[in-house]
Amino acid sequence: MSPPGRQPPSSFSPDGAARHLAAGTLAGARHAIDRVDDAVVALAGVRRRLVGTVRLSKRLGGLPVRDGEREAGVLSRARRVAARVAVPADTADALMHVLMSDACRQQAQAVDAGPPFPIAMPVLPASAIPPAATRRLLHLLPPPRRWKPLLRRLPRAAHAPLAERALARAVRRLDPGTLELVRGRRLGIDVQDLGLAWVFAWDGQRLRACAAEAEATVHGSATDLLGLASRQEDADTLFFQRRLRLTGDVELGLTVRNLLDRLPWEDLPLGLRIVLHRGGALLRAARDAHAGIHP
After folding, report:
1. Which of 100, 102, 162, 203 is the most buried (most CB within 10 A)?
2. What number is the average pLDDT over the span 191-218?
3. Distances in Å between the alpha carbon of 123 and those of 4, 6, 15, 44, 50?
4. Which stretches of the chain are DSSP H helices?
5. What gap in Å lies between CA 243 and CA 54, rounded to an integer?
């Protein structure tokens, strides 16, 4: 019972409004945390699929399960990323130790299970997971646009070098004389749903990311751009359906596209082909799951 002369706080009083606002904010924050937790677990599942590929490669190459140098590199990279997004280093260490321990157990169990699979066999057949369960799992993976607010907080120096290295590994398979056609020209890539954009130029020796304005830019979603890079999507179809757009110097854009068409897919490093192919298939399946498209 309230003291004499004082009414209990109602939803219309300042105290009641503040409590109502606090309760709503708490519920909203917890709901968002639940979605982030779902995404973390779903990404751990994706990581285990990739570890399956690593396990197969190690077995075929006769390599040990543990790689101290690699593990040190994983921890170092996690700490650098953690520092950029205000996550304590010990939190990043603990998370990566859990993931690496899980990966080692996964690989050790597979080694004990019997002889290695033939190289032509997929690491994890699609039929091993019921379609309904697969769709539920993919539904937990946030679409690229949900990552946009987080990725916007990352400095360009955090992601531009990664994109530069990935593209440089691909274009170095081209004849350097052919690349003279685009020497010094600046091509931009705009991943619209992730809010990421880069500009690249060939300097005569290697492909480099630069801060200058692009002369021509390819715009598209992460799913469509990765599908194009992994040869699972056709450039003509994507442009015709307006899923990709080219702005700026159209002639430069078409020249670059023709150069990439000459790039022999089979000459790309096996690891890069696996990442591109599986990543493109995963994003496309997740997009279809969110759109309610059933195979």
Report:
1. 100
2. 88
3. 74, 70, 59, 16, 9
4. 14-61, 68-84, 89-112, 131-140, 144-152, 156-171, 176-179, 222-229, 235-240, 250-261, 270-291
5. 33
* CA 41 to centroid of chain Cα atoms: 15
Checking if the pLDDT of 189 tops 80, the result is yes
Same domain, 201 and 159: yes
- Alpha-carbon distance of 163 to 197, in angstroms, equals 10
Residues 110 and 18 reside in one and the same domain:
yes
- For the record, the structure tokens of 87 come out as 């996550």
What count of residues does the chain have?
295
Q: Which residue has the tokens 């799913």?
A: 223
- The CATH number for 63's domain is 1.20.59.10
pLDDT interval class at 120 (50, 70, 90): very low
pLDDT-derived band at 114, boundaries 50, 70, 90: very low
Structural domain total, the chain: 2
* Residue 248: count of CB within 10 angstroms of its CB: 16
DSSP state of 247: E
Least confident of 41-55, 119-133, 186-200: 119-133
Whether 129 maps to a domain, the answer reads no
Place of tokens 């022999």: 264
| pLDDT at 133 exceeding the cut of 60 | no
- Residue 237 and residue 170 in one domain: yes
Domain boundary among 74, 95, 124: 124
Residue 45's domain comprises 14-124
Of 124, 158, 190, which marks where a domain is finished? 124
201 in Cβ contact with 187 (< 8 Å)? yes
The helix (H) or strand (E) run that includes residue 207 is: strand 207-209
Q: Binning pLDDT at 50, 70 and 90, where does residue 119 land?
A: very low
* DSSP label of 143: -
Tens-digit pLDDT profile for residues 32-46: 888 888 888 888 888
